[in-house]
Amino acid sequence: MGIDRRGFVALGAGAALGWRTTPRGVTPRMRGVWLATVKNAEWPSKPGLPPAEQQAELRGWLDLAVRLRLNAVFLQVRPTADAFWPSPYEPWSQYLTGTQGRAPGYDPLGFAVVEAHRRGLQLHAWCNPYRVSLQPDPAALAPGHPARQHPEWVVRYGGQLWYDPGHPAARRHVVRAVTDAVARYPVDGLHFDDYFYPYPVAGQEFDDRATFAAYGKGRPDRAAWRRQNTELLIREVRTRTLALRPRAAFGVSPFGVWRNAATDPAGSRTSAGVQSYDDLYADTLGWGRRGLLDYLAPQLYWNIGFKPADYAVLTDWWARALRGTRTGLYPGEAAYRVGAPDAPAAWRDPAELTRHLELDRRYPGIGGNIFYDATALRADPLGAVSALVRKEYPYRLPAPVPGR
Q1: Could you confirm whether domain 2-390 is CATH 3.20.20.80?
Q2: Sequence-distant (≥ 6) Cβ neighbours of residue 242 within 8 angstroms
């Protein structure tokens, strides 16, 4: 798997599977889906299933991707400082067996890579970099967990545990832990979601004052120091991924708004309550412009015409902002909002998703889309997902994998 000069992702391990030739008139595009494991959101359906049942469930998800003419699965393999493979750095995930550190009896990531490539699908290892636990007690972690061995790395925040991005040793640990998946398996990419510094919680402070005092000397602006910390992580993961597996893509799916124009004239004409640059300390646009990523997949989980964060406004902004770079752009699509009772009225129109993809086709810099979540794709609310396959445009034909 590699990256062409337009930033598209190409499969390597499954290149001989029989449908690599692009059909006449079809442009290779990313057609991805996120498959979540945290809290057993999608796979495995519950912890403690026998290996054969877990494997059968995963095959079902991969078969669904094939039926929907998708070409990539972004499988969450490190949801909370744990692992879906035999990692030397972190314990087995509790979402496999119900007990963190207990082996599931097989290698889930190894199995997933083989099964995905057998079907002509890319398999990207999706990792959450800094989230340690969804609960606040370190004693509830597996014995020997790095967060228990190094409490100085950990911050309690929002009822959860987080590694402190400003602690150099914690950052080095994260780099080793996530790139171990790249070293061990022929994955088609390494993928981060939107969690760097955690989302703001009203009335709470992410308490990294001691870390800032120790490692932020000469930096009067703690916000700029935090952004430097997240960029260091990106740079180090990028460098190590290239060294370990040069043909593996590295990308991020950030919160969809970098900055509002009211905050920064270079920002988008939005009024979102969260801005990734200011609230998550992630200069995602800067990473794309500086060539630190192979692609960005901003989570544009709003409908066309939604005034605070209009999908059409944001796709236009991202496409223009990354113009002239080699960073691919794959907007994240909110399949989970289609037909949802608490979603704006636009999501009760089954054509909303189709309109998004049709809009994206107008921009040469947009190379495809990634859908969240897999459960919604399987449920096919309002027939919006199956419509993408039935219609001649955009998903009627099989998905050639973008390549060189």
Answers
A1: yes
A2: 250
Judge whether 74 and 126 are in contact, CB under 8 Å: yes
Q: In whole angstroms, what is the distance from residue 283 CA to residue 228 CA?
A: 9
For residue 392, the number of C-alpha atoms closer than 13 Å in the C-beta half-sphere is 1
CA atoms within 13 A on the CB side of 13: 22
pLDDT tens figures, 321-351: 999 999 999 999 999 999 999 999 999 999 9
In percent, the amount of the chain with pLDDT more than 90 equals 87
197: CB partners within 8 A, 6+ apart: 130, 165, 206, 226, 230, 279, 280, 281, 282
pLDDT at 394: 58
What is d(CA 136, CA 81) in angstroms, rounded to the nearest whole number? 14
State the DSSP code for 183.
H
Distance CA 365, CA 368 (A): 9
> If you search the block for the tokens 């095959």, which residue do you land on?
59
Pair 113, 185: CB distance under 8 Å: yes
Instruction: Scan for tokens 């449920």, then name that residue.
Output: 379
Sorted by where each begins, the domain ranges of the chain are 2-390
**Phi, psi dihedrals of residue 75, rounded to the nearest 5°:** -95, 125
Amino acid letter, residue 20: R
pLDDT digits (tens, 9 = 90+) for 114-171: 999 999 999 999 999 999 999 999 999 999 999 999 999 999 999 999 999 999 999 9
- Quote the CA–CA distance of 395 and 31 in Å, as a whole number: 9
Count CA within 13 A, CB hemisphere, residue 209. 2
Handedness of CA 106, 107, 110, 116 (dihedral sign): positive
Sheet of strand 368-372: strand arrangement: 328-329, 295-296, 249-252, 189-192, 122-127, 72-78, 30-35, 368-372, 332-334
Supply 358's token pair: 């049709």
Taking residues 207-225, what's their average pLDDT?
93
Q: Which two tokens stand for residue 120?
A: 């002509």
In whole angstroms, what is the distance from residue 96 CA to residue 109 CA?
12
Backbone phi, psi, residue 160, to 5°:
-135, 175
Residue 4, number of CB atoms within 10 A of its CB:
15
Q: How many CA atoms, within 13 angstroms, populate the side-chain half-sphere of residue 397?
A: 17
